[in-house]
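Q: I have 129 residues here and want to know how they pack in 3D. Can you give me a structure?
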Amino acid sequence: MPIFTKRMLITVSMGAIAGVGCAHIAGIFSLSDPLFWILFLNRLLIGIVVGVSGFVLRHPFFFFPCYALRGIFFGAIISLLSALGVLIDPQPEYAMQVFWTMIVVGALLGLVMDVVATKFAGEGKKLYQ
């Protein structure tokens, strides 16, 4: 199996599992609930982006190694898109708590996905093989 395919399989699988897990933790058990699909697709997208970002080894401007920062950055940014929808909630104190929780959990999931995929599949030029 090509190494890039292996990396993508790892991160997309982890994203799908995280999506179902996050929906379960949020108390969403119905596939017909749009919130289930928002959480599931958000976590799946984190897996896809983290998998593809394995080609980037150094920060493009500051040139430091970005091994763990890739996952944190993409997980937080992608979660931000879904978390903004939570701010519509009429209870602002609850909305802000959920907003920050979604971003932090997304960043942690991105970090874990990147570390696991890099350990088992590699990164950088190795992915071209």
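Q: Anything worth noting?
A: The chain has four helices and no strands. Helices lie at 3-25, 34-52, 67-83, 92-121.
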